[in-house]
Amino acid sequence: MKVERFSTTLTSRHEGLAVEVPFDPTLRWGLPARRLDGGQHGHPVRGRLEGVPLESVVLADARGVFLIVPPTTAEAAGVQVGETVRVSLEPMSVSPGGSNRPAESSRRAARKRPPAVS
Q1: Domain at 4-100: CATH code
Q2: pTM score, two decimals?
Q3: Could you tell me how far CA 2 lies from the centroid of its own chain?
Q4: C-alpha torsion sign, points 84, 50, 5, 11
Q5: Helix, strand, or coil here: 32?
Q6: Containing H/E element for 111?
Q7: Hey, which residues does 51 pair with through a beta bridge?
Q8: What is the pLDDT of residues 40-86, one digit of tens each?
Q9: Are the CB atoms for 16 and 71 separated by under 8 Å?
Q10: Is the CB of residue 79 less than 8 Å from the CB of residue 2?
Q11: What pLDDT, on the 0 to 100 scale, is given for residue 117?
Q12: Residue 106 CB-half CA count within 13 A
């Protein structure tokens, strides 16, 4: 799956720190939103903010599509609300064992599995 790169402004929302995502992940990646902890629906992602690794979620509401930015990520990147940041994202999927990995890696692994014996 292609990594998406964009620049956007770090903002503060009632969910905490966030950045606007300039695309709809469902349309761009062809993956439906998943039910997340707390009952929300969104897209688990991994990527980088100003070069600092992050794992988070992309959510949508009436105001748009946004990425929740962990405060520790913003701090490590040395950025504050109102500053423009560079972001790269790719979707994560949960493997049967429960670990997260990029969706493309999961599909490749699935293609390499031998057929089930009945």
Answers
A1: 2.40.30.100
A2: 0.77
A3: 13
A4: negative
A5: coil
A6: helix 103-112
A7: none
A8: 899 999 999 999 999 999 999 988 999 999 999 999 999 999 999 99
A9: yes
A10: no
A11: 52
A12: 15
